[in-house]
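User: Please run a holo structure prediction.
Assistant: Happy to. Please share the sequence and the ligand.
User: Here you go; the ligand is 4'-deoxy-4'-aminopyridoxal-5'-phosphate.
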Amino acid sequence: AVPATVPATVAAPLVPTCDGGLVEYANFDHGASTPALVSVVAAVEKATATYSSVHRGQGWASQVSSHYYEAARDEVARFVGARDGDEVVFTRNTTDSFNLLAKALPRRTQVIVFASEHHATLLPWEERRTTRLPVPLTHRDAEALLRDALKRSTSSSTLVVLSGASNVTGEYWAVERLAALARGRGARVALDAAQLVGHRRVDLDTLGVDYVAFSGHKIYAPYGTGVLVGRADWLDKATPYLAGGGATAAVGPLSTTWKTGPARHEGGTPNVLGAIAVAAACAAIRENRSAIESHEQRLTSRLVGGLRAIEGVETFSIFGDDADRAPVVAFTVDGVPSPLVSAALSAEYGIGVRDGKFCAHLLVDALLSDEDAEVTTAVRVSAGLATTDEHVERLLGAVASLAANGTGTAYEQVEGRGWV
Ligand code: PMP
């Protein structure tokens, strides 16, 4: 079982396996979306009693909703150590946060980004001058590549976009060191913390970054909720991301003036319950950081060590130095295509994993380039607060069996019935 000191998630369902049995679902897809925390469900349930639009009325429900919404913003600010002059904008997800930031950059901003980024962080800059750095081979290499790009940037405004943790290999990036290089050259830094905040404390000042974005659904809150936190100046001058009600200061027949602050970019009725849920998740994680870290570290070392010990399994790493990492591992199984590995894990063992390129095509292509040319995708397992030791042992046993014997006959039999 998960230690009692770790915030509880809603109970895992029993799922059918192809031998006709039922087994507790082993969710190894926390890197995609996490199950809800019990405390998040409770916070949302409480807030449904005051369902009402925020900042739009004097009615009791409206006042309470407005209070909850702004208290949620304060919790998010506290969670990432927002400074004076930072603001918290609620968005739909990390992708939305980076698209908002892309639209808010001063016109001539030069963007520097590593090719290894998730597409949410790699792609929103297409309308900007962008320098795409290759996938680094080591942490030192990443620093050298960034130093060189910063030296060559002639723009008066530069934004360096970094990941906190890779959604493919689980490795942590040396954010503090890279951000210091950027700051030394007068550049700003935006951090994709989607795979980091659930596992490690993120503090804007300690890391030396200007913006941070993450998604609620990766920290045990619902889909459709995300945040962008950071320097208010560019955001306050930018064209509103969502023009509409709530974002306006005054509307005349010929002109509109816009609010400053987060409301400028949050036009329309916001996802109040989503914001409350994100804040509840942030509070639970903030208050239980050390229990979460020790639970996940134990799982991660067993998971990584166990997978690497299986003959025919290859795990992947960017920096080749992954002692400290998030509980996310990408691997391939010799002779078994990745979609089949993931389908068999589901159908035969009730284990949910992901296969493919994980919205990080350039990184996966680089990591797999030494492999057989036929191997173009990997399997990813990602653990979290709902993961038990039994899940890890079930996964390792299942992968060992797939590596030794291929997919079992039970799986072959149901394949034609569209089980997967
Ligand atoms: N960055 C990273 C590192 C991610 O893992 C993800 C989600 N897979 C995202 C960004 C995008 O998050 P979302 O899909 O919630 O916008």
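Residues 40-287 form a domain with the Aspartate Aminotransferase; domain 2 fold (CATH 3.40.640.10).
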